Amino acid sequence: MKSLQVTQVQDPGTHIDGIDKVSDKSIVIPNKLVTVADTFRGDQSWFIAPQIPTDLSIQVKETTYNVHKYPLIAKCGYIGRVEVQTLISNSSNVLKLENFPGESELFETILKFCYGLPIDFNPGNIAALRCASEFLEMTEEQEDGNLISKAEAFLTFVVLSSWKDTVTVLQSCEALSPWAENLQIVRRCCDSIAWKVSKDDLTSKDAADNQESWWFDDVAILGIDHFMRVVSAIKAKGSKPDIIGKSIMHYANRWLPEMDMELEGLRGYGTGKSNLQFSIFSGVKKESTGHSKEQKTIIESLVSIIPSQREAVSCKFLLKILKMAMMYSVSPALTSDLEKRVGMVLEDAEVNDLLIPRYQNGDQGKMANMPNSFEEFTMQDIDVVQRIVEYFLMHEQQQMQLQQNHGKFNISRLLDNYLAEIARDPNLSITKFQVLAELLPENARSCDDGIYRAIDTYLKTHPSLTDHDRRRLSKLMNCEKLSLDACTHAAQNDRLPLRTVVQVLFSEHVKMRTAMQEKEPAQSGINYEQDGGQTPATTMDIKTLKAELEKVKSDMLELQNDYFELQKEYEKLSNKPKKSSGWGKNWQKIKNSFHTKLAGDEIGYGQDRQKSPNPIRHRGNLRTRFSMS
Fold first, then answer.
1. Would you say residue 6 has pLDDT above 60?
2. Could you tell me if 445 and 451 are in contact, meaning their C-beta atoms sit under 8 angstroms apart?
3. Cβ contact 48:4 at 8 Å
4. Which long-range contacts (CB under 8 A, 24 or more apart) does 328-336 make?
5. Which residue stretches, if any, does this entry annotate as coiled coil (predicted)?
6. Cβ–Cβ contacts within 10 Å for residue 176, how many?
7. Which of 480, 617, 497 is CA-nearest to residue 546?
8. Nearest CA-CA partner of 261 in 242, 237, 236, 280
9. pLDDT at res. 441
10. How far apart, in whole angstroms, are the C-alpha atoms of residue 376 and residue 110?
11. Within the chain, what is the greatest distance between any pair of CA atoms?
12. What are phi and psi of 32, to 5 degrees?
């Protein structure tokens, strides 16, 4: 028996362990005695130095291997098929494997197999060995028990039966495209994962959330392409949409960490419209172009595989990924699809989720969706929210025959709170505010306290509005739908137009009268049950209340007459601006006088209440003052 030793040389006189990675090991070849040569060929060269010289040099990546042709030709159809001498044009006679699917370490394993050494199959290298053996055409036609059949057997009977090994092989396929795709390795791994997930769902329908999500962390380590393949395979197996949605949200939290980061805020914000220059920056440092493209690809891919069912993902997640989509300027079609999805579940949203800032496009240095005028250069992207609300109304109209009409009241409170938030923006135009407030139909709001608070906030932020604009804003609310506390606040609000204040006062009077009328029969019934009938004191209290109500009504009529007279006087003096301030002072005196009268009535009523403990006379809460700011 004679031996052959394989050695790597990096520098002259330096020897490194052979292919078998163990020093002083020999490959036994019958009938030949082989010793180590003292020569080497170039840097990073592998050579086999027997008494019979090598006759083939193969270069893989940056490493060159000096080997014997016969062991390779016997098992590799690719090498045996080519005419080496005719393909090699340079003097070094080196065959370059430029499209070899793998690194040089993988080719070392192939060499070991060709020289008869046993090799180790494991989940980390089996996909690469299968692709490399296909490239080198190591089929059964060359030799029985060749590398293709052995790799296929290990992949089918060992890897695919194990969940962990299957995920490991699928992850290793990311660097083996397109070979792994063409050999159906990716498809088989995805089908195996999907089968195991669906089988677990069937056997544990009533499992807890932590049991349903046992596989989320494992598939989250995959690249976006293979993750999409896995999710598509799991969908095809009939898994529940909410499970698919949870896995997508879990994957997004891992690969899109910016989703949960707060904005740093505004930078370079000017006070005037002419010098308004600001941009929104995320809480992370400026990213490289390659990373931005990767994030954009992930966002687009995740949006495309979200199940269509509304319960699949939460509204908060949809709004978060919508912000990310706008930050990375994904395709308009996907952005529009996200807006429609948000519109379907808008009643589940919160105000902070709807605060979508205008992001700066870092590639172009311009603000995304930049408006044409500085007046609409707002901090928040209001157009997006407007489209979302419109999609919501369209969806509600389509579902009206199948579902009860309960969402509009929720969306009205949400929209009013959103209007109150954006009203603080000094650059929000009154037209944009009005259009957004009028999106909902008139019967959508059961109470107008929210829209009143938004209007009052806008008037505070924009003190230079004209009277015409103030009247435009006041028309957005229905004074009859204001609560008693809101009426009390609005009646003393100097920012509201005069006509609106009168309407509020009248509405307040009607609400007080209604409250008294509702209180009378209820209290009378209680007293009748307690005393067996109505006492003279109770009768006197009711008469006193009626008299007070009539007095308030007469005061209200007088105030209306004064208003009409002042309005006529104002129209006559409209061409004399110097005298307009006197009209404002007269109105202030009348309004203060009216409230002084009401307050005096309450004081007198409180003194009378001390004389009689009857609970029917407790109406101090009807004039409670509150602050809407």
1. no
2. yes
3. yes
4. 328/292, 328/295, 328/296, 328/299, 329/296, 329/361, 329/363, 329/368, 330/296, 330/299, 330/300, 330/303, 331/300, 334/299, 334/300, 334/303, 334/304
5. 542-576
6. 20
7. 617
8. 280
9. 85
10. 66
11. 133
12. -140, 140
pLDDT at 35: 28
Q: Which two tokens stand for residue 453?
A: 């608070």
Inform me whether the pLDDT recorded for 597 exceeds 60. no
- Name the pLDDT band for 81 (thresholds 50, 70, 90): confident
Which pair of tokens denotes residue 335? 């952005």
Report the candidate in 242, 168, 257, 248 with the shortest Cα–Cα distance to residue 216.
248
State which amino acid sits at residue 597: K
Confidence of residue 230 (pLDDT cuts 50, 70, 90): very high
What kind and span of H or E run contains 267?
Answer: strand 266-267
Q: What is the mean pLDDT of the chain?
A: 74
Question: CB–CB of 86/95 below 8 Å?
Answer: no
Query: How far apart, in whole angstroms, are the C-alpha atoms of residue 77 and residue 469?
Result: 85
- In single-letter form, the type of residue at position 441 comes to P
Is the CA virtual torsion 248, 249, 254, 259 positive or negative? positive
Per the structure block, which two tokens stand in for 350?
């919160």
Model pLDDT for residues 606-620, shown as the tens digit of each residue: 334 333 333 333 333
**What local confidence, expressed as pLDDT, does residue 536 receive?**
53
In this predicted model, what pLDDT tens digit does every residue of 526-551 receive, in sequence order?
A: 444 444 444 455 566 677 767 777 77
Query: Does residue 365 carry a pLDDT above 90?
Result: no
